[in-house]
Write a structure and sequence with these properties.
mainly alpha; 7 helices
Length: about 170
C-alpha cells in the first residue's frame, strides 16, 4: 500500500468500515510511515470530537409547542369591545380622515394662504410704472424733419435742434 491509497481509505478505516485484509494493510503502512501515522492520529481525534458533538441533547420540536400555544389561544373567549370604545375608535378615525382630506385639498389648491402670481404682478406693475415715470421724452420720429433733428443737416443753423450734436460725415 502507498500513501495515496492510505489517505483515500483513512476515514473508512478509522470508522471500522474496511474489510479485515484492508485494515491489516492500513495498520502495516501506518506502522512503517510516520506521515501516515500522524494522519491516523489526527483522523481519530476528529472522529472522537464528532462523537462528543452527537451526544448533545436535542432541542424539543418547536412546532409542537407553537401549535399547542395556538390552540390554547383559540380556546380563550374573546372579549367584544364595548360601545364607548367603538365610539372612541370611530371618532378618532373620522378625525384623522378629516385632517387628511383637508391637508390634501390645501395641497392641491393653496388659495390665499400663499402669495400667488397676483402678488408678483402687483410688484411688477409698480416697477414698470416707476421706470416709465423716470424715462425722458424721446425725440419725435414721425415728422419729416426727424432725421435732421436727430443727426443734424447741412442747412441746420447752429441754434437748431441738431446744434448740440456732432456732424456725421
Amino acid at each position: 500500500m502507498n500513501c495515496n491509497q492510505f489517505d483515500r481509505s483513512l476515514a473508512e478505516w478509522v470508522k471500522g468500515r474496511l474489510l479485515s485484509r484492508e485494515a491489516e494493510q492500513m495498520t502495516d503502512h501506518a506502522s512503517r510511515c510516520a506521515v501516515c501515522a500522524r494522519a491516523e492520529v489526527v483522523e481519530r481525534e476528529l472522529q472522537d470530537s464528532w462523537t462528543v458533538l452527537s451526544a448533545t441533547p436535542r432541542t424539543p420540536d418547536l412546532r409542537v409547542a407553537f401549535a399547542a400555544r395556538l390552540s390554547k389561544a383559540d380556546a380563550k373567549p374573546r372579549r367584544s369591545a364595548s360601545w364607548p370604545r367603538r365610539l372612541a375608535f370611530g371618532g378618532s378615525l373620522s378625525a384623522c380622515a378629516a385632517v387628511a382630506i383637508t391637508w390634501l385639498v390645501l395641497l392641491r389648491n393653496p388659495g390665499p394662504l400663499t402669495p400667488g402670481p397676483s402678488a408678483d404682478l402687483a410688484v411688477d406693475e409698480a416697477h414698470v410704472v416707476r421706470l416709465v415715470s423716470d424715462m425722458q421724452r424721446l425725440p419725435d420720429t414721425t415728422s419729416e424733419f426727424a432725421f435732421d433733428d436727430r443727426y443734424g443737416s447741412a442747412e441746420a443753423d447752429s441754434d437748431g435742434p441738431g446744434a448740440d450734436r456732432p456732424e456725421i460725415r
